[in-house]
Amino acid sequence: MQKSTLEKIFEYASMPLHGTLSRKLRKDISCQVNDEKVYSNATLFLGEEFVRITETEKGITTNTYYDWDGIASVRTIAKIPD
After folding, report:
1. d(CA 20, CA 54)
2. Using CA atoms, how far apart are residues 56 and 44, in angstroms rounded to an integer?
């Protein structure tokens, strides 16, 4: 999959954080990279050479890095409104 296509997918699933280059996942949308962990309430950084996904749970911040060339698939998961 091309980097430009992956960027569009991440942009669809997130919104810019004011004053930064990072993006926050939209409300009720989760994201899964390469059929691995499902990220909810995460912040994305779409760099030139990598993607960083940051999550904070129970006072612990975890950064996961993906090389653009190592991303084979991205799944977005959205809650359907009632």
Report:
1. 14
2. 12
Joined together, the tokens standing for residue 3 give 């980097």
Q: What is the C-alpha to C-alpha distance for residues 78 and 12, in angstroms, rounded to an integer?
A: 11
| pLDDT level of residue 47 (50, 70, 90 thresholds) | very high
Q: What is the Cα–Cα distance from 56 to 79, expressed in whole angstroms?
A: 21
- pLDDT tens for 12-34 read 999 999 888 999 999 999 999 99
* Euclidean distance between CA atoms 34 and 7, whole angstroms: 15
User: What does R_g of the chain's alpha carbons equal in angstroms?
Assistant: 12
